[in-house]
C-alpha cells in the first residue's frame, strides 16, 4: 500500500493486498450490553473542522432509522470466544506482523518503523492475543478492547455475533449520547492532562506519558463514565471501524486526490481516536473527527464495536 502516512495515529499497513476473509454465520456467544438508539433527523460532521483534509465538515443533516449498538468496544474476552468457536485468523496473523507502539517493546527489541511515524514498530508475531508480540499476553486484559483488529476481522466478528459494523452516521449519533451538538461524548469540555475524561495521551507525545489517567495503553472497555445513551469510550481508548468507505465530501483538488487514494486502497472509516491521541499531535478524539485506512490495517490501538438492526437480537 503506497498511500502516504497522514499526520494521524493510524499507520498505513504497507501490506500487499490479499483476499478478504469470508464472513461467518451468526451463532456465537455474545455477552455485550446492547443499547437501543432512537432514529430521527441528526447532525453529522461540524462547521468548525480541525482537519479539513479529513472531511470533518461541513455539518449536514441525515435521517437515521432506530438501531442498536454495543455499549462498549468488543473485549479480548469476547474476541477469544469468537476465535475459539470459529478458528478465525486475523489479518495480523495471516500476514505475520502488526504495528506495536515503541514504548511497549522489550528493551533491545529491533523492529522497523514505517516512514514518518518512528513510534510505530513492525513486530512479527504481534496480533490480538499477543499484542506486544511473542511473550506478551492478554491474560490481565480480558476486559480491555481487542486490538490489532482490521476492518475485515471486525466485520467477520460482527456477522458471527448477528450484527454488523455501524455506519459512520450511526456511530456519530450514538457517540453524542442524545446531545446533537456535542463535541465529545460528555459534552463540550476539553480533556487535558489534568482533566482525564477519556483515555488519551498525557504529556509530550511520543516521548513522555505522564499516566495522569492511570493508563499507558488501553483501559477496560467500561472505563470512564458512559454518555447519555449508555455508551462507553466512544472517544479515546481504541479507534473503531465503521462500515463506510472513506470519502472526503469536497470538490477541491486535494479532496479529489485523497479520494482517489482512498478508493485505490479500499479505505474504511475509523472513528474515535485512541489512547495515543493528544491535541498537539492527533486531535481526532472529537466525535466529528475521522480517519481512513485500508481494511487489512491493524495496530495496537485498532478495535471496534458491533451494531444491530432495531429489533434484532445478538446471537447468544
TrEMBL record:
InterPro entries: Sulfatase_Mod_Factor_Kinase, SUMF_dom. Pfam families: FGE-sulfatase. This is Formylglycine-generating enzyme family protein. Residues 33-307 form the Sulfatase-modifying factor enzyme-like domain.
Amino acid at each position: 500500500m503506497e498511500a502516504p502516512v497522514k499526520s494521524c495515529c493510524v499507520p498505513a499497513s504497507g501490506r500487499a493486498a490479499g483476499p478478504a476473509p469470508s464472513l461467518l454465520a451468526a451463532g456465537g456467544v455474545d455477552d455485550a450490553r446492547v443499547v437501543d438508539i432512537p432514529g430521527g433527523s441528526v447532525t453529522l460532521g461540524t462547521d468548525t473542522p480541525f482537519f479539513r483534509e479529513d472531511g470533518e465538515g461541513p455539518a449536514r443533516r441525515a435521517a437515521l432509522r432506530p438501531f442498536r449498538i454495543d455499549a462498549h468496544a468488543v473485549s479480548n474476552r469476547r474476541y477469544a470466544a469468537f476465535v475459539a468457536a470459529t478458528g478465525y485468523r486475523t489479518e495480523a496473523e495471516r500476514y505475520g506482523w502488526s504495528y506495536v507502539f515503541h514504548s511497549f517493546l522489550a528493551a533491545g527489541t529491533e523492529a522497523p518503523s514505517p516512514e514518518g511515524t518512528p513510534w510505530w514498530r513492525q513486530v512479527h508475531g504481534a496480533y490480538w492475543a499477543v499484542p506486544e508480540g511473542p511473550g506478551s499476553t492478554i491474560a490481565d486484559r480480558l476486559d480491555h478492547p481487542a486490538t490489532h483488529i482490521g476492518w475485515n476481522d471486525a466485520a467477520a466478528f460482527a456477522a458471527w455475533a448477528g450484527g454488523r459494523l455501524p455506519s459512520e452516521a450511526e456511530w456519530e449519533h450514538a457517540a453524542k449520547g442524545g446531545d446533537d451538538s456535542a463535541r465529545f461524548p460528555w459534552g463540550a469540555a476539553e480533556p487535558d492532562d489534568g482533566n482525564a475524561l477519556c483515555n488519551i495521551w498525557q504529556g509530550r507525545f511520543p516521548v513522555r506519558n505522564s499516566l495522569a489517567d492511570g493508563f499507558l495503553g488501553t483501559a477496560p472497555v467500561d472505563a470512564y463514565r458512559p454518555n447519555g445513551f449508555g455508551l462507553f469510550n466512544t472517544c479515546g481508548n481504541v479507534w473503531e471501524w465503521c462500515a463506510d468507505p472513506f470519502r472526503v465530501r469536497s470538490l477541491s483538488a486535494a479532496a479529489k486526490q485523497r479520494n482517489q487514494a482512498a478508493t485505490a486502497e479500499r479505505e474504511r472509516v475509523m472513528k474515535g481516536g485512541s489512547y495515543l491521541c493528544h491535541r498537539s499531535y492527533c486531535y481526532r478524539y472529537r466525535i466529528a473527527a475521522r480517519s481512513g485506512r485500508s481494511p487489512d490495517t491493524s495496530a495496537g490501538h485498532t478495535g471496534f464495536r458491533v451494531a444491530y438492526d432495531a429489533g434484532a437480537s445478538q446471537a447468544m
